[in-house]
Amino acid sequence: MSDLGDWFRSIPLITRYWFAGSIAVPLVGKLGLVSPVSLFLWPDAFIHRFQIWRPITATFFFPVGPGTGFLYLVNLYFLYQYSSRLETGAFDGRPADYMFMLLFNWICIVVSFCSSSNFDNILLLMIPLIMSVLYVWAQLNRDMIVSFWFGTRFKACYLPWVILGFNYIIGGSVINELIGNLVGHLYFFLMFKYPMDLGGRNFLSTPQFLYRWLPNRRGGVSGFGVPPASMRRAAEDQQGGGRHNWGQGFRLGDQ
User: Fold this and answer.
1) Number of other CB atoms surrounding residue 92 within 10 Å
2) Is residue 76 part of a domain?
């Protein structure tokens, strides 16, 4: 038990709470302590009946059963792996910036689901949010060669789409994975691609209250993953200028 406790405490702070919540809330529903029906995102109940907890519980809840248990465990693994890698890699020392990314992606996912014309749908947000994080990691490490099941090797930029297909095969719904990828792309485009590669303005910035709540730590990596190609070329053309540290990626499955 001490080894398990040490491993759990070694998980980065934000990922640790997200991971723990994604175990605790499904367990509460599985044991019948709370009705699982009250944990889904039901747009009609959320908007018209002011059941404001639903977008939060739907982020952590997953109906674990004989037909969904493997899908749940696989995506729990993706949560642990890629959230940890972003939090300790590109966002190292900047927990507020990482929390802002999660909040932005979460809000976009909630809006996309609640804007659906069918308010009778009962929805889960766990997989879309995980996929949005995985997508951002894959784009920041897009040229890295990663290994997937059965020794398949490809560039990291293709990983979200490979996992979309993989989740579909083992029982997922393509819509959840697709929305997660699109939201992840929106964040990546607005935060990195548009201002850095295309020279546009920066539309996203972390609110100050998050910095007060989660202050930056010294010793963090400066920068976010791998910059767009045009930014790397501009940096290489500068004479006498300091090189920017854009962090390092990880191979799939590395610990």
Assistant:
1) 18
2) yes
